[in-house]
């Protein structure tokens, strides 16, 4: 098993509860259902999640730059939306790293991260939705380019691998923010895949020019709904 450097005050996170002001009921924020993990294993799992997010930041930065320039060249709204979403993902991944960097104030960190992620999801989804509506209204046609399909296809595979790894870690930690992180990476993989498919279809026949915008709208609505759900969970008595 890989060895990780020990962070300051790197003690295993206990199960935290908070008391709401409305009814004084305890609310589990970490929901650590897996009690079979040893202290060392729990610490290693948290470090693994941090490592995966560091990799995600690097991958997202590179992918967003490549996709952004290709999207501008092709006038592809779904590809542009994917690039913008990937940029926001960097902020989301950074908050996850902060969330699990230390074992102090786990309850507060969980709430803060859920609210930050919910705002990032909603803003990202809203931007993509507005851009998609604008392209449908102006009947903007993408410019066929096989390089975009190839680049985004590779990104689909990379994000899918990261999502599987994060979901595996999230199952061990059983924390909503960890599951949200896995969901976010999965959405990135789905967005990349949809961009690949819509680009391939449009390169074959231009009569489906609107498919690019429709895919962008569907993904944007999914992201916004999940962002609202996260925000409601962060204020809920039971998470």
Can you give keywords for this protein?
mainly alpha; disordered N terminus; 6 helices; two-stranded antiparallel ribbon; 239 residues; single chain
Number of helical segments with 4 or more residues? 6
Q: How many strands appear in the DSSP assignment?
A: 2
Query: How large a portion of the residues is in β-strands, by DSSP E?
Result: under 5%
Largest sheet: 2 strands, antiparallel
Q: What series of H and E elements makes up the topology? A: EEHHHHHH
Uncertain residue ranges: 1-33
Approximate shape = elongated
What would you say this structure looks like, in words?
With 239 residues, the chain is mainly α. The protein contains six helices and two strands; from the N terminus they run ββαααααα. It has a two-stranded antiparallel sheet. Helix 2 packs parallel to helix 6 and helix 3 packs parallel to helix 5. The protein is elongated and about 60 Å long. The chain starts with 16 loop residues before the first strand and ends with a helix. The N terminus is likely disordered.
Short description:
By secondary structure, the chain is an all-alpha fold. The protein is built from 6 helices and 2 strands. Mean pLDDT is 77; it is low at 1-33.
Blueprint of the fold:
Elements: E1 17-19, E2 26-28, H1 39-74, H2 77-101, H3 106-137, H4 146-173, H5 176-204, H6 211-235
Antiparallel strand pairs: 1-2
